[in-house]
């Protein structure tokens, strides 16, 4: 269901990342992590989960790692492929809520830019962390840029469940997503990953129905 909604979103975009050709705000903190990424002694490859149209591929290749993007929707992957003029991007269709279609220890870095929001169950998040750890080499890094519970667009859409999860339903896109606090995400990634560093992002963003103060955050985790 959610895959069909994302296919529709790329056909009739409401979310800025679906059309924006500029890299995500979250790539700014990643640039600051480049020295730490360079110290990972592993395969010279990275995996970008929920890669969308590949707008972050340019910045991510500054790591010196070969870009592998995975998304479960076909339309954004076709967009990423169309942008890949030199054929350097490896693009795979698959869901990050399932077993990842890669060998153990295949990557030095796994990234996710505003995509873990679509994995809403604790159990699925823990499986995702275990899978990310499995495909990373020893000492590999996980970088996640995510929507927080304080984000002005999503905060009014939050339906706080009895289990404390902040689930959102967006009537514009029809998407059900989960917004996080850094501590919550870190707890779900434990014991597969330990938090190394984090940063908050606050910026204005215009969507079809108004301008909002967006509050996102990024974290860098090391595989445990
Ligand atoms: C907000 S977009 C972000 C795209 C890209 N990371 C960016 O920053 O431009 C979220 C992306 O996650 C993808 N996605 C959502 N759930 C997914 C899943 N279970 N497995 C793989 N991709 C998923 C969507 O198709 C969409 O392309």
UniProtKB/TrEMBL annotation:
The keyword Methyltransferase applies. Transmembrane segments: none annotated. Keywords: Methyltransferase, S-adenosyl-L-methionine, Transferase. GO terms for molecular function: methyltransferase activity. Residues 47-144 form the Methyltransferase type domain. One of its GO terms (biological process) is methylation. This is Class I SAM-dependent methyltransferase. It comes from Streptomyces yaizuensis.
């Amino acid at each position: 269901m959610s895959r069909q909604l994302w296919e529709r979103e790329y056909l009739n975009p409401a979310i800025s990342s679906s059309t924006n050709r500029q890299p995500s705000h979250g790539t700014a903190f990643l640039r600051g992590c480049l020295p730490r990424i360079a110290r990972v002694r592993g395969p010279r490859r990275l995996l970008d989960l929920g890669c969308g149209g590949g707008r972050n591929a340019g910045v991510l290749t500054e790591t010196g790692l070969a870009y592998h993007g995975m998304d479960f929707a076909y339309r954004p992957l076709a967009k990423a492929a169309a942008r890949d003029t030199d054929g350097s991007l490896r693009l795979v269709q698959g869901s990050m809520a399932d077993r990842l279609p890669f060998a153990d220890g295949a990557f030095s870095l796994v990234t996710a830019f505003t995509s873990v929001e679509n994995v809403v169950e604790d159990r699925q998040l823990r499986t995702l962390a275990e899978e990310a750890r499995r495909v990373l080499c020893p000492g590999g890094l996980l970088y996640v840029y995510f929507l927080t519970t304080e984000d002005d667009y999503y905060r009014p859409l939050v339906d706080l469940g009895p289990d404390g999860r902040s689930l959102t339903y967006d009537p514009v896109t029809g998407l059900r997503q989960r917004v996080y606090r850094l501590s919550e995400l870190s707890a779900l990634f434990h014991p597969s990953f330990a938090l190394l560093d984090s940063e908050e992002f606050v910026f204005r963003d215009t969507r079809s129905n108004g301008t909002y103060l967006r509050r996102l955050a990024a974290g860098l985790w090391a595989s445990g």
